[in-house]
Amino acid sequence: MVHLEELNKYNVWDVIELTVKKEQESFIAGNEWSLVHAYVGNKTEGAVYPFGIIDDDKAVGFLMIAYDYGEVCNDPDAPEISDNNYFLWRLMIDGEEQGKGYGRKAVELALEFVKTFPHGKADYCWLCYDKNNEVARKLYLSMGFQEIGEQDDDINAVIKL
User: Fold this and answer.
1) Tens digits of per-residue pLDDT, 54-84?
2) Fewer CB within 10 A of the terminal residue: the chain, N end or C end?
3) What residues does 153 pair with on adjacent strands?
4) Right CATH number for 2-160 from 3.40.630.30, 3.40.50.10800, 3.30.1300.10, 2.130.10.10?
């Protein structure tokens, strides 16, 4: 059964070892770097939730959610939608596990988690993806996200909660 699992001292290494396919490496930061962001974000004013995507007891991916991203990252260029909303900051499925429906299930589980409003009420969940990542684009649009603009090489998309 696929589920999200909070990272801990027992499963974090399995998640760190996951990698995307070579041709996807430019689309997302490595899991180690994402965990650094989570640690620093949680030590400042933000709320960052890193999860392993687990099928039975096997790590197949990594997902990270933040609340009020601009504040968490002290990012003056964060889009306006980031204020007091949830951000699906990272989603990766191991290259060997892609094409099995894990990405779609992980997004569904992430939205279920966000709708519990663990850090406060919000109207939206947003995300961004590389404008050249057509697989991500198709997935998010098929799940109801709507593109709201472009920033640098990324497309921002949002879904109403």
Assistant:
1) 999 999 999 999 998 777 777 778 888 889 9
2) N
3) none
4) 3.40.630.30
